[in-house]
Amino acid sequence: MEAKVRAMARTRSTAVMFATLLLFWLMLIGNLTLDALIVGVLASLVIAVLYPNGISFFTELRATPEAFVAGLRYYGYFFKELVKSNLRLTAIVLSPSLPIRPGIVKVRTRLRSRMGRLMLANSITLTPGTLTVEMDSEWLYVHWTNVESDDIEAATGAIVAGFERYLEVIYG
DSSP states of 112-160 as a string? Predict the structure, then answer.
């Protein structure tokens, strides 16, 4: 019985991905000619079959009102951090002494979902001054332009905690 439930869930997931990809294709192409529809159906079908576990940030998304609100807050937080880090790096670049202390720090995430961890790693990388160089289970190795602390907990608090508090609600 359990195998049947898993097969049904997999089929549903593949069908949802197929429909999403086809809809995106149709919006992208902008017309409903037969050749565009055939190409869209074939490409969507191939992708949905080859990637049954999903390839989008919707894969492990929790569809709850709390997750929606956390998503909006996450983007607000991300853009705030983006501006702050750009200003910080601008000050470093414009300073004649170039006050940096580059290094790779090890940080820990509490996120359990693959997509949540991927979103976290991408958020860190997209923020100027930090670059996720490796993910290994709960550990992320981050190149930090100006290492404020070598301590795992302190570095985790400075780099990860802000993003993680929203991503935990969105992805778990």
Answer: -SHHHHHHHHHHHHHSTTEEEEEEETTEEEEEESB----SHHHHHHHHT
From first CA to last CA, the distance across the chain in angstroms is 27
* Residue of 55, 164, 152, 69 whose CA lies nearest to 112: 164
Structure tokens that stand for 18 in this block: 């197929």
- Bridge partners, residue 140, by sequence: 107, 135
Find, among 155, 164, 142, 163, the residue nearest to 76 by Cα: 163
Say whether pTM exceeds 0.70. no
List Cβ neighbours of 58 (8 Å cut-off, separation of 6 or more).
20
Query: Side by side, which strands form the sheet with 103-108?
Result: 103-108, 139-144, 130-136
Are 120 and 112 contacting, i.e. CB atoms less than 8 angstroms apart? no
46-67 pLDDT, tens digit per residue, is 988 888 766 665 667 777 899 8
> 3-state DSSP call for residue 110?
coil
Paired tokens of 96: 């004649």
